Structures are given as structure tokens and as C-alpha cells.
Amino acid sequence: MNMDPNITTDAAPSKSKVTSAAEPDQNDTHNKFDTADTVPAISVESVSYNYGQRKALDDVSFKVWPGRFTALLGANGAGKSTLLSLITRLFDTGVGQIVIDGKSFKQYGAAALAPLGVVFQQTTLDMDLTVRQNLKYFARLRGMTASKSKQRIEETLTSLDMFERVDEKVRDLNGGHRRRVEIARAMLHEPKLLLLDEPTVGLDIQTRRIIVEHIHKLASNSGVAVLWTTHLMDEIRQDDELIVLDKGRIIEEGPVNEVLARAGSPSIEDAFEALIIGEKERL
């Protein structure tokens, strides 16, 4: 990015947040990975970000826990992609702190990103390489041995029903298959935190459902923490964690069923609309 944004943290105290998404519920039967001494996969602490005079994020704080699918829900322009750019160090957080698996950028630098797997909104695969070549190249960048790389390429692609396409060029794959390859690449090194920036944008309904189902299973079966940004409410389940972002501010967070109860709404769509309307009236 060419501009040099100014990053600020407001001195005024933020509104008190609900605690439901901040600490894992030890009685939650959906999450077999929660324990009393669990370290958050990521902790975002009082992060604000400006593009010149325009505030993109305003005192954002939340945690994502192992084995949980956390949906970051917001309309286009809410600040979701900016937040992921800060987490992945495409932008510098400056003031505020981001801690991944107990390690902050300020203390550990690029090493703090080691537990991270990322699927960006725009494809980042090399179109003229085969699926195998793309994944082998990434594995080398991650310092994986040849034998481990071979094993993980087969495992991740098989789990996504893509191994039979391993020697095809990415250019010859459709959009849904390319997205599956990117998910496989993000999971090659067995990350503790998987970030996905609106990964189903532009995909057909069936492919969207397959990918949403796969990522939910990854969280529940492998224990990876998932932060999934979206503006599509049908991708969110009742037992997910939910963070609602509006104009750079978190206006609600917690387990979906608790968010619905507090909003007095029967569905995520109704709750989201009520929250946005309430926020407009508050301002």
C-alpha cells in the first residue's frame, strides 16, 4: 500500500464488552479442547487503525480459542480485511497489541506468525504451477522436510477431495477447486490459528457449503482455532462464536445463541439488523 496510515488508540474508555467470547466455557460440550489453562490462539488488544483521517478500526479487542470456529461478521467496509491485514503483518499495528499463541509481534517479530495459516480473499496461488508444485514451494518456505511435505500434501488434499488433481495446473482449476488448494496450503504446516478472509466470495452455493462444512470440522476435530470473516450469515452456526463488527467497532460478541438471546432475535439475520439499527441510534 502506498499511503502511510496513522494508527491511533483512543484515550476514552471503550464500552464494556460481554465476557462470553472472552473466556472458554468449561461446560461447553462442543469444544473438547477447552481447558482451564488454555492459551488463546490469538488475542487482539485495544487495536485502532486509521487511513489518514478515516478511522478503520476503533479500540478492537477480542480472543479466539483453540477448537472454536469464530465468525467475524460485518458488512463490506466494516474493517474485517483491515483487521486481518494487521494480524498477518501486512500493516503495522503500531499502538495496540496482537498476540498469537502467547507471542506478541513486538517481542517476537516475524516468529510470532509461525502458528498462523492464512487464506486471503484474493487468490495467491501461482497459476502456471501445478497444485503439487504450489504446495511443495510453500512447504519449503515453512522449512518442512521433503517427507513431511509429501505426507501433508496428500493428507490435506485428500481431506478436501482434491488429491486426484494434484498434478494439474492451477490455471485449469475452477474457482472452488483453487480455494480448496489454498485451504490445503494454509493447513500444510498444521497451524494453531487459521485465518480466512471471506473465503467463499464468488463461489457457487454448493461449493460454499462444502468449504464451510470442512472448516467447521477442522476446528472441532483438529483443535485449530478458526477466525472466519464474512458478510454471509448463512455460513454461521448456532454453536459458533460470533464477533459483530460495524464501522470499525465491535458492537457484540459471544456464542451465537447468547448473542441472539441478548438481541431478542430468532435468527442471526434479525439480530444483526437489530444491532446495526441500535448502533445507528446510539450514534
State the separation between the terminal residues, measured CA to CA: 31 Å
* Total beta-strand segments: 10
Order of the strands making up the biggest sheet: 6-7-8-3-9-10
State the share of residues found in helices, binned by percent.
25-40%
Note the beta-strand portion: 15-25%
Q: Based on helices, strands and strand pairing, what is the structural class?
A: alpha/beta
Low-confidence stretches: 1-22
> How many strands, which pairing sense, and closed or not: the largest β-sheet?
6 strands, mixed
Radius of gyration over C-alpha positions, nearest whole angstrom: 19 Å
How many H/I helices?
8
Shape: globular
SSE sequence, one letter per element: EEEHEEHEHHHEHEEEHH
Look at the structure and give the mean pLDDT: 88
Give the SSE layout.
Blueprint: E1 42-51, E2 54-64, E3 69-73, H1 80-87, E4 97-100, E5 103-104, H2 105-108, E6 116-119, H3 131-141, H4 146-159, H5 175-187, E7 193-197, H6 205-222, E8 225-230, E9 241-246, E10 249-255, H7 256-263, H8 268-282
Parallel strand pairs: 3-8, 3-9, 6-7, 7-8
Antiparallel strand pairs: 1-2, 1-4, 4-5, 9-10
Helix pairs in contact: 3-4, 7-8
What does this structure look like?
By secondary structure, the protein is an alpha/beta fold. The protein is 32% helix and 21% strand. It has eight helices and ten strands. It has helices at 80-87, 105-108, 131-141, 146-159, 175-187, 205-222, 256-263, 268-282; strands spanning 42-51, 54-64, 69-73, 97-100, 103-104, 116-119, 193-197, 225-230, 241-246, 249-255. It has a six-stranded mixed β-sheet, sandwiched between helices. Strands 2-1-4-5 form a four-stranded antiparallel β-sheet. A hairpin with a 2-residue loop joins strand 9 and strand 10 (249-255). Helix 3 crosses helix 4 (146-159) and helix 7 (256-263) crosses helix 8. The longest helix has 18 residues, at 205-222. It is globular, with a radius of gyration of 19 Å. 37% of the residues are buried. Residues 1-22 have low confidence and may be disordered.
